[in-house]
Amino acid sequence: MGDVVVGVLALQGAFAEHVKMLRQLGVTAQQVRKPEELDGLDGLIIPGGESTSMALIAERWGLVQPLKAWVGAGKATWGTCAGMILLSDRATGQKQGGQALIGGLDVTVNRNYFGRQIDSFEADLHVPILGDPPVHALFIRAPAITETGAAVNVLAALTDREGSSVAVAVRAGPILATAFHPELTDDLRWHRLFVQMVAI
Ligand code: GLN
Hints:
The chain is of the alpha/beta class. The protein is built from 5 helices and 12 strands. It has helices at residues 15-24, 51-60, 64-72, 82-87, 189-199, and strands at residues 5-9, 28-32, 43-46, 76-80, 88-92, 105-110, 120-125, 135-140, 144-148, 153-159, 165-172, 175-178. The strands form 3 sheets. The protein has a 7-stranded mixed beta sheet. The longest helix is centred in the last third of the chain and has 11 residues, at 189-199.
């Protein structure tokens, strides 16, 4: 996997952890803070953190349009948690005035779906595409996907306290999105999956 170069958006949040895991897989990983740092990348990770802050910083640093163009060009992109929110075409539970979304993923995300019930929790997820063992997932003020477009594949779902099933990991073509934080565990399977998507 040495030929692949993956950028991690490094405006705010858990970017260093993603860089570390990519390097463990032998992938060249770079932090991205300026539009020109997207040039030459094969894939991009948008990390978890706080989506409103990340969107504000992206606006201030002139990154919103370049990121939209990146996703619009069909480049491999993975959003974790806040990153998943920014990649979603539709969001609910926004702060007043909403926020700039990058979009590209045909889903409706609820920004603080689990946050309203409980701040953080852990769950073992059955993820057929990754096989056994189940994924031990960390949810931190986590969003969830409440509606998916026809071309969106649900990779993992969770049943909430009311008994409704919501998607917490999805893939649509070159876009991967997870509501939880694989970069805060030592399970490299999601990063390996994404690097395979990048290499296609
Ligand atoms: N719910 C948070 C948000 O709105 C995301 C939390 C996270 O990335 N851990 O940005």
